[in-house]
Amino acid sequence: MAILILNQRRRAFAPYLSWLEDLDEEVYLYTSPAYGETTEPYALVQVFDNWVTNDRVEIDALRLYEDHPYRLIIALDESDLIRAARLRDRLHLPGQRLDSATAYRDKAVMKSLVRQSVLCPAFRRLDSPLHLYDFVLEHGLPVVVKPVDGMGSMNTEIIWTPEQLNEAWERGLGSGLMVEAYVEGEMYEIDGLMMGQEIRFASVGRYSCQPLEILGKECFVELLSPADPIFQRLVQEVQRVIEALPSPGISTFHCELFHTREDELVLCEIASRTAGGRISESVSAMYGVNLNWEWVRAQCGLPLTLPTSSPPRVAGVYLMPKRPGTVKKLPEALPFDWVTEYVPRVKTGELLDAAHSSVDAVMTVIIVGENSASLQARLSELLRYLEHEVQILPAYKEDTINETPVISRKQ
């Protein structure tokens, strides 16, 4: 038989044949142009322009199956989960089906299913502006308005004041939105691999900022030691969330939970895919596990290589967001042996817009430390260095250098 991969990533981030080198089957690759030219020995490579909106991906996949049947469909990106699930339903293939993909993609469906098992903020799907009006009358401000199938905090808005509420109505709410009560508290993210509805591996991270308010702000995601008092409590809460949703089969997950001042855990959302923003790469730096590698191989029936002991160090990823201006200076490399990955996402001379998502960054930097204290000390050293080595001229004032602000950290 064979497997079909639906892909929109660059080859460097998705070396499927390397991951599956011990798989004795043909591999078909449907991909966006982002993958790049390849001479890799796929049985078939087909490139589709306008990948996310191109319906021929599904139609051609059906036609391919008629002539060259495949036993699995692999899709790693959140925007491909529904597409892959529809094909599995149609072709009766194993893996995540449409009910599960919908539950993990549509946040209103998700919270309707889990609210009997875990705490959720008050929420409502917005089918008209009257629904937002009624919700604010009942719950007050602030509220969060976001797409039901959004990701990376894109098009998410916190409405703090009546004036902002009127502005939202004046420009029109649009479709596919929901509203939630705003939750005060620290935000944690939990990543891992599940088989059926059982968590087989989990990592826990803490945001230095609120992801709902991250646009234009710097953020550090610190991965916690499994010995941290809140680690197992968060993992157990995610287990309850997963048990309340239709099983995705074998999948990675990325969940976000609020920890309130009242010591309650409140669900923000969960996705049946691997975390972005280089969080999964920081998990790899700490635990030595590549979640996408494990996910792809496990779906194919190949053996897992998950960690069986506590990690010898902790890790975290720093994201410097884009802001309007021209990049005048950017380091080519970082002079620290505790930096395991430095990814500049812009070039010198590039004109930048404001950040449009939580992962729309000037750079990402993964650092490691012996413990939380050493990690925070190294983060401070990194930020002091970047204050002098990164220069972005504000778009509105060509003769002024915009210094890199230092993110706030709890003492």
Automatic annotation (TrEMBL):
Read off the InterPro entries from this record.
Answer: ATP-dep_AA_Ligase, ATP-grasp
List the PROSITE patterns.
ATP_GRASP
Q: Can you give the residue ranges of the ATP-grasp domain?
A: 110-300
Which Gene3D superfamilies does the UniProt entry name for this protein? Answer: 3.40.50.20, ATP-grasp fold, B domain
UniProtKB keywords: ATP-binding, Ligase, Nucleotide-binding
Q: Which domain of life is it from?
A: Bacteria
Q: Does the keyword ATP-binding apply?
A: yes
- Name-wise, this protein is ATP-grasp domain-containing protein
Which species?
Answer: Paenibacillus rhizoplanae
